[in-house]
Amino acid sequence: MKRLKLGMIGGGIGAFIGDAHRRASRISNEYTLLGGVFDVDYERNKEFAQLEEISPDRCYRDIDAFVAGELALPEDKRIEVVSIVTPNFLHYHFAKKLIENSFNVICEKPMTLTVEEAEELVRLVEEKNVTFALTHTYTGYPMVRHMKELIKSGILGTIQRVDAQYYQGWINTLIHGNESRITGVWRLNPEYAGVSSCMGDIGIHAFNLIEYTTGLKVEKVLSDLNSIKDDVELDLDGTVLLRFEDNLKGVIRATQVAAGEENNLNIAVYGSKASLKWEQENPNYLYLISDTEPTKIYKPAHTYNSDFAEASHVMPAGHPEGIYEALGNIYKGVAKAIKGEEGFDGEFPTVYDGVRGMKFVHSVVKSNKSGNSWVELK
Ligand SMILES: NC(=O)c1ccc[n+]([C@@H]2O[C@H](COP(=O)([O-])OP(=O)(O)OC[C@H]3O[C@@H](n4cnc5c(N)ncnc54)[C@H](O)[C@@H]3O)[C@@H](O)[C@H]2O)c1
Q: How many domains does the chain contain in total?
C-alpha cells in the first residue's frame, strides 16, 4: 500500500492533540510522518524530531523553511498533506501558506480566529483544489456516523428538539488555584484563543455535532455566557438557545468549570416518532428511544449498522474503540479524498464546517455582549 507523506506543524514534546494525530494517522495505516515544524522552540523541535526518527533536514525552523524545503524536493518525495495542531491563533496563517503552495491540510478546530479568515480559506481551498479537513474528532466515532445515517433515513419522524451538552471541569483548577497560571494557559488568552474560551474550544464541537448528525443548519442563537471571575477575560461557561428553520428549537450547554466533569459531551435529537441519544464518554452505544417500543441500543461492528458506521471500526465487535480510532477514521477519509477514492458523505469535516464554526462562536459572543439578543449566523 502506498502511504501518504505526512507533515505536522505543532505537536512537539508534551503537546496534547499532536500526539493523538500521530497515533490516529498510524491507526488509519495510510500515512508516514516525514517532517514538520513541531515546536515553536527550535531546540525542542529538533529534540522531538530526533525522538520520532525524523530526518534532521526535514525538521524545519518555521513554516517558510518548511514550504521552501519541501517544494525544493522532487514531487514524488514531497510531503503531500500537513496536519496543523498548534494553538488557535496560528491555524489561519499556517493553513493559508500551505494551501497557497498546494499542500493538502488537516487542521485543528477552531479553524481560524475570525469569520473573514475562515472565508478566505474557503476561497483558497476552492482555488487550489486541495483537500482540507477540520478535525472535529467526534464525527469519526462509528455510532455518531450511524446516528447521522439513521436521522437521514427519517426514522425519527419530524425533529422537534435538539440538545447538546459539553461539560468539563478542568479550568477550575487553573482559575481557583495559582492565579499566575491563568496567563500561562493559551486557551484563556484572547490573543491565542480568539474571542471565546468555552464556546470556541468545546461549544463549537457540540455545534458541529448537531449540524453533522442532523444535517440541519442553526439559523439564530441567543447566548448567556459567564467568565466566572473578574480577572478572566473569556467565557468559561454558557448556555446557547438555538433556532433552526421551521420553528425547530434547541440548546447547547457548555462549561469548563463544572467540578468533576471530564469530557462529558452528549447529544440528543428528539423526533415525533423516536429519538436518538449518544454520549462521548460511552461512545460505543447509541440509544434509540420511543414511546411505543423498548429502547434499542446500537453498537459498532454489527451488520445491522449502516455501511458508513460499519466502515468505521477497526476491531471486531466487543473490542472497545475510542478517540484514537475516531480520529483515525477522519485520517482514513482524508486519505481516500487525496487518493481520489470514493468515500461516504461526512468522512471528515470540511473548510465549510470551519466557516460554520466561526460564525457560531462569533454570533454567540455577539449575542452575549448585546444583552442576550438573537443573532443570525450570517
Ligand atoms: N479536536 C479536538 O478534540 C481537540 C482536542 C484538543 C485540542 N484541540 C485543538 O488543537 C490545537 C492544539 O491544542 P493543544 O491542546 O494540543 O495545544 P498544546 O499547547 O498542547 O500544543 C501546541 C503545540 O504547538 C506548538 N507550537 C506553538 N507555536 C508554534 C509555532 N509557531 N510553530 C510550530 N509549533 C508551534 C507548541 O510548541 C506545542 O507543541 C488547538 O487549536 C485546540 O483547539 C482539538
A: 2
Q: Are 353 and 136 in contact (CB under 8 A)?
A: yes
CA of 352 to the centre of ligand 1 (A): 21
Domain boundary among 114, 137, 160: 137
* pLDDT tier, 183 (very low <50, low <70, confident <90, very high otherwise): very low
What is the C-alpha to C-alpha distance for residues 190 and 365, in angstroms, rounded to an integer? Answer: 13
> Which of 46, 54, 86, when mutated, tests ligand 1's pocket best, judged by the most ligand atoms within 8 Å of its CB?
86
Residue 285 or 172, more confident = 285
Cβ distance 208 to 234 under 8 Å?
no
Q: Do 44 and 117 share a structural domain?
A: yes
| Residue range 62-81, pLDDT digits in tens | 999 999 999 999 999 999 99
Ligand 1 residue neighbourhood (C-beta within 6 Å): 9-12, 15-18, 37, 39-40, 85-88, 90, 108-109, 135, 137, 201
Q: For residue 258, what is its C-alpha cell?
A: 463544572
In a domain, 151, yes or no: yes
8 Å CB contact between 332 and 339? no
Instruction: Write a three-state SS string for 306-325.
Output: CHHHHCCCCCCCCCCCCHHH
CATH number of the domain within which 205 lies? 3.30.360.10
45 vs 62: CA distance, rounded Å: 10
